[in-house]
Amino acid sequence: MSSGSNILFDETTVFRSLGKGELTFKEAFDEILNYIKADKNSSYKISVGTDSQVSGKTYFVTCIHVHRVGKGAIGFLHKSVLQRPIRNLREKIYMETCITLQLAYLFDEERIGMIYDALGKKGITFEFHIDIGRKGETKVLINEMVGMVKGLNFVPKIKPDSFCASCFANRYTKAI
């Protein structure tokens, strides 16, 4: 959802599931919970991340990726548009990270508690994928971005381990 120069997430934000079509965040969360409940003997990684592409506007794709380790995954995508191009790399990475933070905050204590109740704390990892890495221009932003994320219940990941932002979201910034 875009509002002027802001991109906002709430429970009614619509995500696209590759298998289920359009779902609100609340419906996507229900799908995640059902996916976990269907196989309580597996371990899971829930990752969130955002990537962007710039042309005359800036397009963001934000993803939720739920990996049943060794047994497949489900994913949800949301595309947002900012009506202006973001040419400054620092601003672009900050926007991607802040958008992902908004999504991460929707996984509040109650929802994380529901996941723990379904699976137990040992079988789940929450990851926050940032589209930056030790190579290239984004390396100067690592401390800032990782510092922003560390206060959440998510583990910050950067390239090459930030596949939710750098691969999954990146693939769909041009496709949806």
Structure description:
This protein has one domain. α1 (25-37) packs parallel to α3. A hairpin with a 3-residue loop joins β5 (44-54) and β6. It contains 5 helices and 9 strands, in the order ββββαβββααβαβα. It starts with a strand and ends with a helix. By secondary structure, it is an alpha+beta fold. The strands form 2 sheets. It has a 7-stranded mixed β-sheet with strand order 4-3-7-6-5-8-9. The chain has a two-stranded antiparallel sheet with strand order 1-2.
> What is the radius of gyration computed over CA atoms, rounded to a whole number of angstroms?
15 Å
Number of strands: 9
Average predicted local confidence, pLDDT: 90
Low-confidence stretches: none
Q: Could you spell the SSE succession in H and E letters?
A: EEEEHEEEHHEHEH
Q: How many distinct folded domains?
A: 1
- Kindly, what is the distance between the CA atoms of the first and last residues, rounded to a whole number of angstroms? 15 Å
Describe the strand arrangement of the main beta sheet, using strand numbers: 4-3-7-6-5-8-9
Instruction: Name the beta content range.
Output: 25-35%
Q: Residue share in helices?
A: 25-40%
Total of helices = 5
